[in-house]
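[job 0412] stage=fold_complex status=start
inputs:
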Amino acid sequence: MASLTPIDLPAGVTGEGAFDAPVDEEGHRSALFDYVLRLGDDALILGQRLSEWCGHAPSVEVDLSLANMALDLVGQATHFLHYAGQIEGQGRDGDRLAFHRDVLDFRNCLLVEQPNGDFAQTMARQFLYSTWQKMLFDHLSASSDELIASVAAKAVKEVAYHQELSVEWVIRLGDGTEESRGRMERGLAWMWRFIPELFEVDETVTALTGRKVAVDPNVFREDYERRIGEVLAEATLDPPPDQRPILGGRRGHHSEHLGHLLCTMQFLPRTYPDARW
Amino acid sequence: MVAAPKIEAVEPLKAPPLDGEGLGRGGLRGQLRVGGEVTPTQPSPIKGEGAESMIWAVLESVPDPEIPVLSVVDLGIVRSVDPNRVVITPTYTGCPATQVIERDIRAALDSAGYCDIAIGTILSPPWTTEWISEEGRRKLRAYGIAPPNAPGERRVECPQCGSADTEEISRFGSTPCKALWRCRACAEPFDLFKCH
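[job 0412] stage=fold_complex status=done
writing structure:
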């Protein structure tokens, strides 16, 4: 994989030495809330995106695959967002966080909110995200935070399926017909600029890495790039040309697409508050 | 010697209805849920010796909503039972049956008179298909679902004809726990319970 433009990392971010800092419980709680929201929002937004395929996929088997992946992700989101609500302690539960926040308060990465496009673009996004999520959750299974560790350990088995499925499709479409190959190339080219954000390290990650709650994703960055490169090689695809990385999702700076997604996802609970089945 | 509890003297409590308005504000939801655990509403009549095995027997009567030939015990999701508490674990992170299972267990315990037993949920260690009992595997096969393989085992036998000449059609099947397979010998499609 061609190298990507490095992003600005705070100097000296290794997570070491953080134990020397004075204990700041309120600061820790706020960082933990932020981090768990990121985990929950990534899963929620990608789950919602995939569910948009329901009834529209190229075949019934693919339809089921996408709906099942969406279900796994929404399940992860449920656990993480409920937990985020508990950490925050303001009486918001997972549903409240999912359905009653606006764009600026979402903390998902930009990759997951990108539009489905065609099936190839959806699979390109899934491939880049699930490969990252699998590696992240492998590490988070050993988190010092009990809930993060248990959800990660449980979900990582499901994410492994998502990764396998998307890898198969990247290869099949990439090494397929002229048409399928062109579509996969365009899908990857769209998603490529959102990879660097996955490896961004800010104060939240730094603070929690020190306590072994979070993991600095750069510890698996080489593995990630190698894996992506191997799959693209097998798909006979060249990595897309480098583009300027786009960051900001973790701070609430989202693309226009997220607002449209939330309109659909949040319409019912916002229009009919307290509606029940 | 402790006298056996007099079960026949107990008037079984009626479980609250589980559909429609029964789950509204006045029903299960408002009454029983406190902080993610179910809080009992009435004292249990059956205590002491033998209570645990009787609770296990009640749980064995609770079917999995998606694969009703299996009980929640066959499925391996009941992690522990004591006279005060039943602890279950979800199968898949997003399994929509989890809440239904919890309600079904509540209803079964209530109607057997065990109203003051809390139901707790744990996530760790994560559920695995290795916890499905031998009895559960046998029931799955008889129902037409190939039971999960041991990790690494690739051979899948057709639950209809027993042939191992089978192939995967789709790794994702009708529910998160199943993959769709086909038998080349008898040409029948079938579900495989995925190794998890």
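[job 0412] summary: Chain B touches chain A at residues 23-24, 90, 92-96, 122-127, 169-176, 180, 196 (CB under 8 Å).
[job 0412] exit 0
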